[in-house]
User: What shape does this take?
Amino acid sequence: MSPHDALAEIAFRLERDRAEPFRIQAFRRAAAAIASTTEQQLRDRAADGRLGRPKGIGGRSLEVITQALDGRVPDYLRRLRDEAEAPSSPEGRELLARLRGDLHTHSEWSDGTTPIESMVEAGRLLGREYLALTDHSPNLKVANGLTAERLAAQLEVVAAIDGPGLRLLPGIEVDVLEDGSLDQEPALLDRLDVVVASLHSRLRADAAEITARLLGAIADPHTSVIGHITGRLVEGRRGTRPQSVFDVDRVLAAAAEARVAIEINSRPERQDPPDDLLAHAIEAGCLFSIDTDAHAPGHLDFLGLGAERAAAAGVPPDRIVTTWPADRLLEWTHARR
Assistant: This one.
């Protein structure tokens, strides 16, 4: 493998393992530093000692480059590959193979870490057929949410990205406001293929308020998916957070009737919805969307974790919208508008 590809894969796998950001960025910087350098130039620089001098190439990155130039899979990369997790059951692996896309991803336009193009390339390498770009809406200022003007500008960027093997869908993760309305102009929501509606504020409010907000989001004809429905955190750097309390029967019945999907959020720190609520949603007849909520290219590989949970719960595959081909998916997302 090429030194650049080795460095890029290490960064990807560190993201997948939720490593410290400075470690990830060290390998991304090194990959960028040699991106325009030929392999022969790298060999020449390694031979005369100039390779380690350019800004952005540290000791570990230099070791990776040197071992790749020798025709080896670098030791550091091999160790990360050996430690990689995968769906542990045959049912999880089978469902993962059926997933065609991901409807919840972020870029550096809001609180993601990389450009849109990097997310698209990672999705393509992972074999995704489509990817929805769903950066945050303006109310979530802490996540650099997109104003109407910035979202309109992003739509132009998305429209210009075209390449083989993956379809980039314009979308948004839109905040559900306290009155149950969606935090973006309806005319802009009309232009999107995917709208993930999520609660990010007042998650400890009483059941009546949370229920009303979720019902308001489901009633909006733009809403495709309810994201991380309980808002819980079960582990990770941000600590833990209990799940929001709401009228589960009313919310799931409304989602099933409106054909709004309940997200199975694949992030290890979320695992949302909880197992009991997931079972309830199956019984209620809901649709589901297995998504990664990716904020970096490596997070796109979380999809297997969501597939494992869905398979263990017995979610019928045809009720998982991310198993559908793009044309069927888009017919569904636009059906209520």
Notes: The two ends are 48 Å apart (CA to CA). The mean pLDDT is 95. The longest strand covers residues 167-175. The beta strands are 101-105, 130-133, 167-175, 194-198, 225-226, 261-265, 288-291.
